[in-house]
What we know:
By secondary structure, the chain is of the alpha+beta class.
Amino acid sequence: MTSLLNQSVLVLNRHWLAIHFCNVRRALCLLYSDLARVVDEAHQTHDFQSWRELSQVASSPEKIHSPGFSILVPQVIMLTRYSRRPPQQVKFSRRNIYLRDSHQCQYCGATPPRDELTIDHVTPRSRGGRTTWDNVVLACISCNTRKSNRLPDECGMRPRRPPARPHWPLLGQRLHGGPPRSLWQKFVDTAYWNSILESD
């Protein structure tokens, strides 16, 4: 059940625009608090009570079970009072660099504890490198020490993936885990999902 509670749910604002992701646990809390409605495949919305009633007759393996009842795992929710627009850019921050690189050293592929990862400038700052999305990667302490103040060609260490500006939905998925759901595509077209967002 824990894995079901951590699945991603697409969040829409009250104007039906995709704005964020949350996990199932948060989605159900919003639903129960009457701050959100579940959106089903027929684009009908359900409050907590109607979603609970629908869950009793649905034959889906994705249900959260409690002693009193079972409830379907929602794929999409719509906030009832929030009307702001979706984020237009991914903020350049330490947290988002960790999410983009999946908490993994981009040189050796190791996934050490968070306090053993550093942010490395592919082109060192002392050699004209800037602190931007396309010049920073996560590196374990060992790789960062070995690379030192050298360019990738000088030390034979290239990042496994070239650093680039991430897309907002990609970060949302990495934050909450899980693959995209089929119902999401009804609310967000391909151009939106694949558009490149500006960094700071």
